[in-house]
Design brief:
Layout: E1 13-16, H1 27-37, E2 41-44, H2 51-67, E3 72-75, H3 78-84, E4 88-91, H4 98-105, E5 110-115, H5 118-126, E6 131-135, H6 151-160, E7 165-168, E8 186-189, H7 191-194, H8 199-214
Parallel strand pairs: 1-2, 1-8, 2-3, 3-4, 4-5, 5-6, 6-7, 7-8
Helix pairs in contact: 1-2, 1-8, 2-3
């Protein structure tokens, strides 16, 4: 792995934020709860916040992640990641190409890329991705545009690349066992954490299961 920027264990329980279930809570409080419960990686995903609010939220959560020594990256928004000095960025297939992100952020930052085929995975690796997010491995309501990835494709992607792979899409404590043996380093979840009444306990349960199946 290049410069060991992302270790397999960093991806064991990869949490992607979603504010739609917050109610009267603060997103930063839920992020800290899942970190206390065992989340190993945090991605801030904001599709609707205006730039200044997004940046303020990012700065608050960045400090919390630093206190827990957990990588903190921004979804899609390279400029905010660069402005606050986030650990990196995650981009999809329709976002800025990994090579362009690398040129903007520099060699020391983490770049994650979404992939749903072996070809996309290999291209991302060639262009400097540090890890891949592969999915959707199960039906999901969190991302309406997510392509389905079957078990054979997930395993083929893991075997084709030398960078770590995390699975995403509809993963829960009840179904993650089906991903065992695929070659992934861990799971990436949204609603399995942030839609739960107790995000701390949800994270604790998911982390224990992930360590059992993917360590």
């Amino acid at each position: 792995m290049k410069q060991n920027k992302v270790r397999p264990e960093d991806l064991r329980l990869y949490a992607i934020t979603d504010r739609r279930w917050l109610g009267n809570k603060k997103l930063s409080d839920d992020v800290e709860a899942v970190l206390k419960g065992g989340a190993t990686f945090i991605q801030l995903r904001e599709k609707h916040l205006e730039t200044d609010a997004f940046k303020r939220e990012a700065e608050v959560i960045q400090k919390i992640c630093a206190a827990y020594h957990v990588p903190f990256i921004i979804n899609d928004n390279v400029e905010i990641a660069k402005a606050i000095g986030a650990d990196g960025v995650h981009v999809g297939q329709s976002d800025m190409a990994a090579g362009d992100v690398r040129r903007r952020l520099g060699d020391d930052k983490i770049i994650g890329v979404s992939a749903s085929t072996v070809e996309e995975a290999l291209e991302a690796e060639r262009h400097g991705a540090d890890y891949l997010g592969v999915g959707a491995v199960f039906p999901t309501g969190s991302k309406d545009d997510a392509d389905a990835v079957d078990a054979a494709t997930l395993k083929a992607i893991c075997e084709a690349v030398d960078i770590p792979v995390v699975a995403i899409g509809g993963i829960t404590a009840d179904n993650m066992k089906e991903l065992s043996g695929s070659g992934i380093c861990g799971i990436s979840v949204i609603s399995a954490l942030f839609a739960q009444p107790d995000p701390y306990q949800a994270a604790k349960t998911l982390r224990a299961e992930a360590e059992q199946y993917f360590a």
